[in-house]
Design a protein that fits this description.
By secondary structure, this protein is of the alpha/beta class. It contains 21 helices and eleven strands. It folds into three domains: about 55 residues, no CATH class; about 260 residues, Rossmann fold; about 170 residues, no CATH class. β3, α7 and β4 form a beta-alpha-beta unit.
């Protein structure tokens, strides 16, 4: 007879088995996503011990040993930071806006802070030093440096990236920010009151709830998929087709326009006409804001909002294929989902979340100089660039010099950094500098692209090192599968004095394969 365990008993049993803390929430996750079967109703949920044992059987060989077999024994597991939950790796302002290819703050903190251990045998940066990130991206290095009392300079060729990074470390008049957000929310609600979108969406949600409850009961449906008792692709497509007439009838009844009449820009193609109108309402209100800091952080909230409101499936937010304007089977949620017809709920959610994250971070950051310059790190004049934004910081850099770099340069042929935020460039009118990106996806990974990449990174190091102290420390995070960094170091008259190879655990749901990157430590030859 099968032995049943409560959620609490299951967490205790799994903790003893694995020698690590397995929380009741971890067990509930396994139930919710169909890894193990749910017995009983909510409040008295039980699980089968034998199923739990079967699930954890693959964990008897530790992930450390498994990954080292695939990636090599030189893998430094101490730098995996696997003890941290997602909420830790996206703490405070690190989740202010989605951004592909950013590293986790704990990695930056490890090399910038004042601790030593078996792997990090010396302190590289101390309070009052200046650190540079010439590929600033979303500003992770700048944020963590500010928290540690280290002055920081970011540089990014993307004007939008620079804005995100600067917004993370600024001080705000929160009363004013909240007042502006509230006024914009009122404008949106007035707009919605004058049309049938809310009524349409409420009716659609009611129909979806009944349909999904009948055909995709949770968590039984996910459990049956995991056990291959249901062919998800076939069943999902069948039910998607079955619900479509219900959706089309409501669209016709409420005269909902699913597409815009033009598709000339990103905003035209990837947003329904109604959502596009709401975006314009918010954008017009933002244009009226006099305080530049308030204006920029509210712009970031709008950008984060409209990223989530593109006409695509929940599973394809990061990689767009074709606009989705009808209900569809969603593999991420295991049911029929719908496209969005209003930005209001996301706008209110992200506005509240953004203010909370900024307030949380404001209690942690130290009094430091920090800013992000927009420009090409291969040619930028750092001192003169700072002089325009912060003359006192410019003087400090001229006097003290920069102590080094902590940065994650772009990888060869992996991401088009401007294109990932095309919606924001379209809306806010930032100048695009795609042609100045180093190693973009559109250039591929051929020989010419690799040579261009080597020259680009080398030129950056050669340009910025003239602002450095003599005994500088440069840390570059890269998955150097083409072995380009020894050449880059040599071109910059630097030497690689150490390499820290770390497993990268926090990857997308779709790709859980073993993957590593190297933190190259470079010094003057």
């Amino acid at each position: 007879m099968s032995e049943l365990l409560s959620i609490k008993e299951a967490s205790d049993w799994a903790s003893d088995l694995l020698g690590k803390n397995v929380t009741p929430s971890n067990i509930s996750y396994l139930v919710q996503y169909g890894r193990i079967k749910k017995i009983g109703e909510n409040g008295s949920t039980m699980v089968v011990k034998e199923e739990l044992a079967e699930y954890y059987a693959g964990f008897k060989e530790s992930r450390v040993d498994t990954w080292k077999k695939e990636l090599g024994n030189d893998l430094n597991w101490a730098l995996s930071f696997d003890q941290y939950k997602e909420s830790d790796t996206t703490k405070h302002v690190h989740r202010l806006h989605p951004y592909k290819g950013k590293f986790i703050p704990q990695l930056v903190e490890y090399f910038l802070d004042a601790h030593v251990d078996d792997f990090k045998k010396e302190i590289y940066f101390k309070q009052g030093d200046i650190v540079l990130d010439p590929f600033s991206g979303s500003g992770t290095t700048m944020v963590q440096a500010c928290e540690l009392g280290i002055h920081s300079i970011g540089i990014d060729v993307s004007a939008f990236n620079s804005m995100i990074a600067k917004c993370k470390v600024k001080d705000y008049n929160y009363d004013e920010v909240l007042k502006v957000i509230s006024e914009i929310s009122k404008k949106l609600k007035l707009f919605l009151k004058d049309n049938h979108t809310v009524e349409f969406e409420e009716k659609l949600l009611h129909e979806l709830y009944d349909f999904n409850l009948k055909h995709f009961p949770s968590p039984e449906y996910r459990y049956n998929i995991k056990r291959k008792m249901v062919d998800e692709d076939t069943y999902g497509a069948e039910k998607e087709k079955e619900f479509l007439p219900i959706f089309k009838k409501l669209v016709a009844e409420y005269k909902i326009k699913q597409r815009q009449s033009k598709e000339g820009s990103f905003l035209d193609k990837w947003y329904s006409e109604h959502i596009r109108e709401e975006i314009e309402i918010v954008h017009n209100e933002i244009k009226k804001i006099a305080n530049s800091d308030t204006k920029e952080i509210v712009s970031v909230i709008l950008s984060r909002t409209i990223r989530s409101c593109r006409a695509t499936t929940h599973a394809d937010l990061a990689t767009l294929f074709e606009p989705v304007t009808t209900t569809y089977y969603c593999s991420k949620h295991g049911k029929i989902c719908k496209p969005l017809f209003s930005i209001l709920s996301w706008w209110e959610r992200y506005a509240k979340d953004t203010v909370k994250r900024l307030e949380d971070y404001s209690k942690l950051k130290k009094e430091t100089f920090h800013t992000c310059l927009t420009g090409d790190s291969r040619t930028i004049d750092i001192v003169n660039g700072l002089k325009k934004l912060d003359p006192e910081f410019s003087k400090l850099v001229s006097k003290k010099k920069i102590n080094g770099i902590f940065s994650s340069p772009p990888y060869v042929g992996l991401i088009d950094y401007h294109e990932q935020h095309a919606y924001a460039y379209d809306l806010f009118g930032f100048d695009r500098n795609d042609e100045l990106e180093i190693g973009p996806l559109f250039k591929g990974q051929g020989r010419e692209a690799k040579d261009s990449y080597v020259k680009g990174i080398s030129d950056v190091l050669n340009n910025v090192k003239k602002y450095f102290v003599k005994d500088y420390d440069v840390f570059l995070v890269a998955n150097d599968k083409y072995n380009l960094y020894p050449t880059i170091a040599d071109n910059a008259d630097m030497k690689i004095v150490n390499q820290f190879k770390r497993p990268v655990l926090n990857r997308t749901e779709r790709d859980k394969s073993a993957y590593s990157e190297i933190i190259f430590h470079l010094k003057r030859k």
